[in-house]
Amino acid sequence: MTGTLSIRDRRLGGCHLVVLDGEIDLGSAPVLRSRLSATIALAEEPVLLDVSGVGFCDAAGLNVFAVAIKDAAARPVPLHLVGLRGRLANVFTLTGLDQALPAHPDLRRALRALRAGADGPHGAAVRPEDGRPVPG
Q1: Which residue range is the domain that position 65 belongs to?
Q2: Inter-axis angle of helices 59-74 and 86-95, to 10 degrees?
Q3: How confident is the model over 68-85, as pLDDT tens digits?
Q4: Is residue 102 helix, strand or coil?
Q5: What is the spatial distance between Cα 26 and Cα 10, in angstroms, rounded to a whole number?
């Protein structure tokens, strides 16, 4: 499967927002990996990955997220997911990636959690399915 992936980024509310829209697969994963690596390497603020527009993600895409987690931890720079739901949330749960990245149901809640500084510099993580805080 070779789909189309749109990657847009901008600074917003003291964060670097990366908005993904489309399919993350073997064809789009290398471009996404390169963009995320560069963003994380240069980030001076938390990075938010808005995945609400991702309709498909294969193993190559999951590997991109795993590498991004590793890169962010090495810096260290806070890395959060926004809009994780549906099939993508299920895959993150099955692979354990949901335990490695704080997730927020929407951008407003992500920004609020980061501003509040809950759970240290990474903000409060919440369950994607219901928005309730993840026990820490």
Answers
A1: 5-122
A2: 70
A3: 999 999 999 999 999 999
A4: coil
A5: 25
